[in-house]
Every structure is written in structure tokens, then in C-alpha cells.
Amino acid sequence: MAGCILLGGCSQMFDKHVEYEYQTPENFPVLYAVGYAPISLQPGSTEQQKAIMAMKASKLEAYRELAEQVYGQKVDAQTSVQGMVANNDSLKVRVQGVVRGAKVVKSYAVGDTYATEVELDMKLVHDLYVGQTRPRSVKKVTYF
């Protein structure tokens, strides 16, 4: 028990003499995504309401696509075989994450489909991240 306390105290003593240096990547990619939504299938009593709902749905779809690029997808698949024949085949795909700093580049209708283009500048994401968490690596350690 005394050894743990002594070692814990030493680690705090040495941490006081560590200097940190902020790391910045050399280049930052810009990610692009497009979301689509059918206008006529949206809920609403007028064409204008359906168009607004399609705008919202296409924007959310574009953000989902950005999240897939940043965080990847979780894929769950299951197939059962009976008598050497595929009996049941199911596939579930899920994406989860927080997308900050994305902006809508263009939003437009093409026939009965609404499209929204978004971009995510990873330089902006980096700046937001540094502003919140201040990532760092060890620059120099000095001992007594």
C-alpha cells in the first residue's frame, strides 16, 4: 500500500516538469457528401410542404453520409441456411457520430428529387477540436 502511494506521488512530481507542444497535421482534407430525398413521397398537404420536408430529409441524409465517412459504418449481418438453401438473410447498417463544422454548399431540386450537397473542411474540425481539448504531445521532460 505504501509503495503505491509513493509511486503515485512520484508520477505527480515528474508531470510538473513535462513541457507540451501542440501538434498540427500538414494537410487537411475536405469531405463532400450529397443527400437525396423524393419530394412526392414526403408527408404534407401541399407541394410546398412536401418540398420543405424533402429539403430537410436530403440535408439529414447528407449529414449521415458525412458521418459514415468520418466514423465508418457498423454492419450486422446474419444468414441462416436450411437444406443447403439460404433461408433468411438480414443486414443492418448503423452510423453514429457527431458532425461539427459541416456546411451546406448547395441545395436544389432535380425533377421529383431534392438534393443537398454538404462539405466538411477538416481544418475547421481541427480548429474546433483544438479550441475545446487542446491536444498535445510531450515536447521535453526534465528530471532533477
From TrEMBL:
Domain Lipoprotein LPP20-like span(s) in chain numbering: 31-121
Protein's UniProt name: Flagellar protein FlgP
Organism: Pseudoalteromonas piratica
InterPro entries, per the entry: FlgP, LPP20-like_dom
Assigned keywords, A-Z: Cell projection, Cilium, Flagellum
